[in-house]
Design a protein that fits this description.
The chain has 7 helices and no strands. By secondary structure, the chain is mainly α. The protein has one domain (3-129, 140-173): A middle domain of Talin 1 (Up-down Bundle), CATH 1.20.1420. It has helices at 3-6, 9-29, 32-44, 48-69, 71-82, 92-129, 141-173. The protein is 81% helix and 0% strand.
Length: 177
């Protein structure tokens, strides 16, 4: 089959949907660390409501992105099937991208999303506490917990950022095709 044969309208629409899912889903997750730092900074400066608002927005957008991210391999696998015999699951770039996606999704499901949700929960607790009592020394324990979770998010998001770059390389260069 010639490449022109499988580059029909349905294939192109599926490819656009695949790319939109990547941008809308994964693009959002690249900024998790920034939201986390801003929420922490707001909390440290005494703006518990601002911290909670930032964390809530991050959690809300993250939940939307999560649903979009699940469609990425669906569209990708659809493209392989729609290509006839041009693209095959036995090609290194296809199977390796799927494996790396599964690793990243596992990391996100087990570490990143629960940590971000816990930060949002801690931010809500801080906001509901009101101002610190007179004579209180140091930040509340929620701030320390958010710091630990923020560092964990930073490290494990870095892993997913590297995975996304490698997968992007595989999609563009298609080694083994």
């Amino acid at each position: 089959m010639l490449i022109a044969d499988y580059m029909d309208g349905a294939y192109k629409v599926t490819k656009v949907l695949h790319l939109l899912a990547v941008m809308a889903g994964l693009g959002v997750t690249f900024w998790y660390g920034v939201y986390g730092m801003r929420a922490k900074k707001a909390g440290e400066s005494g703006d518990a409501m601002g911290s909670a608002g930032i964390a809530e927005a991050n959690d809300f957008v993250g939940r939307l992105a999560e649903k979009v991210i699940y469609t990425i391999p669906v569209f990708g696998v659809g493209l392989v099937f729609m290509s006839g015999d041009v693209l095959e699951f036995s090609q290194t770039w296809v199977w390796l991208a799927l494996v790396l996606f599964a690793v990243g999704l596992t990391n996100a499901t087990v570490v990143l999303m629960p940590s971000a949700r816990k930060i949002a929960e801690l931010s809500r607790e801080l906001a509901s506490m009101g101002p610190p009592p007179a004579g209180a020394q140091g930040p509340p324990p929620q701030v320390a917990a958010m710091d630990v979770l923020g560092k964990k998010l930073g490290m494990f998001s870095g892993v997913n950022h590297i995975l996304v770059v490698v997968i992007l390389y595989l999609m563009v260069a298609k080694p083994g095709l």
